[in-house]
Hints:
There is one protein chain. Strand 3, helix 3 and strand 4 form a beta-alpha-beta unit. This protein has one domain: Rossmann fold, CATH 3.40.50.1000. By secondary structure, the protein is α/β, with parallel strands linked by helices. It is built from seven helices and six strands, in the order E-H-E-H-E-H-E-H-E-H-E-H-H.
Amino acid sequence: MPFLKPDRYFSRLSKVDIDRDLLALGYRNVFLDVDNTILTRDTHEVPRDVGLWLGQARDAGISFCLVSNNWHEGVYHLAQRLSLPIVAKAVKPLPPAFMIALSKLGAKRAETVVIGDQLVTDVLGAHFMGMKAYLLAPLVEQDLPHTLMLRNFERLVMGDRKPEGAVTPSASTAHPAGKTNGSHVQTNIESANKEG
């Protein structure tokens, strides 16, 4: 099942090294899943380390488009607060949403990587399009019922493969907002968390 094998596997988004894992490999564009990738399923918040990483990546010249199968108002609100384009109701892994995202960014497939927490939507969809895919461990264990069923299948596919980057208890509070590049993005995220 090569189409279901992620090109890389990380414990969370902030463990993706912007220079080494993106820019050095020619990736200038990232299609980013939302639920349990950058937004926790249980509290519907963007963890601080994830928000800071997004800001740092944008400061480094990375362009983002959110690509989500979700269609609720919250994903549009998040995209607005982050000032990011979004393709919602994406029906991943089918190609049309990825084609729309490429058009929104004016991006080339070879310069784009898909990052998300599911094999059957994010990874498979990326590989259908001939793009690379980075799988993330979900932010929290809480998921929709049908997603929980798919997690068992994912465990079979991944076997004993471990994600890159250790998750530490202080990961979500390691960098105070405003102390690193991208703090303006973190401020927007904190506002969205309070309002959403």
